[in-house]
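Narrative progress, year one. The postdoctoral researcher (J.K.) led the effort to move from monomer predictions toward full complexes, under supervision of the PI. The following entry was the first complex the group processed end to end, covering 229 residues in total.
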Amino acid sequence: LAKTTQPISMDSYEGQEVNITCSHNNIATNDYITWYQQFPSQGPRFIIQGYKTKVTNEVASLFIPADRKSSTLSLPRVSLSDTAVYYCLVGRISSGSARQLTFGSGTQLTVLP
Amino acid sequence: DAGVIQSPRHEVTEMGQEVTLRCKPISGHNSLFWYRQTMMRGLELLIYFNNNVPIDDSGMPEDRFSAKMPNASFSTLKIQPSEPRDSAVYFCASLLRGPGSYNEQFFGPGTRLTVL
């Protein structure tokens, strides 16, 4: 099973770009990489998902190198409201399994004014 | 859509009592998950249903835990008998599994369970 490793915490200032890297050395061929955001007293919220190279949506970018053993979530111009825990999730849900839906410990991002 | 609905939001019970947590997934979603979150163990997957059928229950901690999904719009997680170590936040999530959205789960607000 693909184990993920993320920094426990990160600090940033408003307006800066934040990059959070996740290591997943034994990712499987069919696994996808997904990032979630969680605020206190709320359920996790989907941010972005990718398989390889780069994916961008309206809130973030996800960079995945060719070997797929790591991935980097990039948040452009963070604000105070981006203070949350960010989880990297590696696996794939299919009709027959929910392989490796382990969220890990996450990264506590604190955005300072 | 109202999103994933869970009830109750908070539950306080005494050791040995039966606890039933409820979940209404997003209409049209074909997959449902139950998670448990604690400070010590983080977010753990308990069970996964696909089209109302339990597919993966390897995360269910022991026989005291059981989950059902009698139809596409309702699921329950039952703990009988409850123990203090079951105290946690329990999340339900649903997903429309298909090409390009393999892992995009929608989580409910959670049920905070306290077992005294």
